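INFO  loader      accepted 1 record
INFO  loader      residues=304
INFO  predictor   begin
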Amino acid sequence: MVIINTTSKHKLTITMKKNFFTPIKLGLLAAVSLSLSLMSCSKDDFDPSNDDFVELTVADSFIGKDLSVILIGADNTAASNIAADLNNDGKIDDSEKIQKTGNFYVFPKVPKNFKIFGNFASINFGNVVTDLNITRFPKLTNIQFNGSAKVTADASNNITYYVNVDNSSSSVDMSMFTKLKTFGISNSSLTGIDLSKNTELESLDLKSNKLTALNLSANKKLSSISILLNNINQTNMQALVNSVSAPAKSINSFYAFGEKFPNQTDNNYMTKAQVAALKTKGWVVWKTTYVSANQITNSEYTGR
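INFO  predictor   done
INFO  writer      dumping tokens
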């Protein structure tokens, strides 16, 4: 949760209820005290050979352990009718019971690969997952995860929300996600990214990566952009500024530079003239200052 306190026309204070970069991290629940209920679905409710599913692959070190996943239904309703083929025998067995508390589902003693069935539109998982295959699950619209999992999709996917933290990959292929509206990869290792196919993007968060250049000429619906804590030099920043269209909505925030973040240096170089050019297009350009683990402040950036 993020609380924004407007202290003046040119400065915002943001109090963060969780880490600036980190969505909910998932994995073993051994260290978490939760009230869990057992759930199972009748084996007659599913036909694993025909029903839609997502398929997860976990790291070898996690085979045989309990995996927790957050599943939420469409329009933020509760997921329902969740089941998993944990022994990969092509059917749902009575022994494949899932623990549930709220939106958390705990799949016991998972194999290397397994399938999740049911009614849900959003999935959130931790860094022990190495691959998520959604080619058989067009109902999915939201993906949120920690780590470097590969997301396998085809052109039929309906993903509009994709947020990833702590990805060690230098590049990701987002070309299949043509319906994306919100996209973020932060606190990661991206050196470049092609967003030319993501023409529906409205919100983009690429803070804390290793980006050296970025082209947003295809993304004319953007109204929020965050590129702070990257490595974009003055020449490539000019190309980025030139590529940016006017903000599509009244939310017109461009987060360009960060300071005082622990163990991080912002190597972005945006000049006063480049800030002025963005303002002429209708953007408000921000500098983000780290105050504490629970607070940052944003003030209007004037450039170098």
